[in-house]
């Protein structure tokens, strides 16, 4: 009797497992956003700034991942990009289309951000969304990581030209209180790559002393020009008080 019971139980369990078995992998054809941070965790947003960029354009690749088998034909991806405060062509440029290349299991949809004056006082955001179409379904809409639920169908890019804090190599004891205006003036006058200020191995103590001396002399020269009624660099003066910037 016990033997028959065990056999029936096994058959019931086997039948139950067969009914709940997921669709074969080859039957799935979907796409989703698959972007990771430095810790390799999946993210659904990115916050970037132009302050360390020498260029007025910044390319941001957004990874779209295939779930299923690659095809020997290129396939369009359903993608929309919207924003409440950024204008296409002015603040950002999009690729002509979103396409998964033939034979590829992923592709980067590259958004080109443009540096504008507005970004010095306002952070802008664009929203990318994947939609189902005749080529792809949406089998994955989110991923749960620890206590965080991350969307895989929406991706947000925040961008500005503002600092949230002084760069790592800026020493206020040597070059004075940090402001974005002073930082940009240093890079402009001395031809320093903005990104160098995040590396104390590049912006050394000796380099900071050099910056202090050179920028102090530069501002003094602009003050003399202004007092003489000559053309001068307005960036060397505080726009609110009119006082010359200090680098000591």
How would you concisely characterize the structure shown here?
The chain has 248 residues and is of the alpha+beta class. It is built from 4 helices and 14 strands.
Distance between the termini: 94 Å
Mean pLDDT over the full residue set: 89
Radius of gyration: 28 Å
What is the quaternary state of this protein?
single chain
- Give the strand order, joined by hyphens, for the main sheet: 1-5-10-8
The coarse overall form would be: elongated
**Strand fraction:** 25-35%
Structural features, described:
The protein has helices at 2-19, 172-175, 180-190, 205-227, and strands at 29-33, 35-36, 42-43, 45-49, 57-68, 75-76, 78-82, 92-93, 99-100, 106-114, 124-131, 142-145, 148-151, 154-160. Strand 2 and strand 3 (42-43) form a beta hairpin. It contains four helices and 14 strands. The protein is α+β, with helices and mostly antiparallel strands. The strands form five sheets. A four-stranded antiparallel sheet has the order 1-5-10-8, with no helix packed on it.
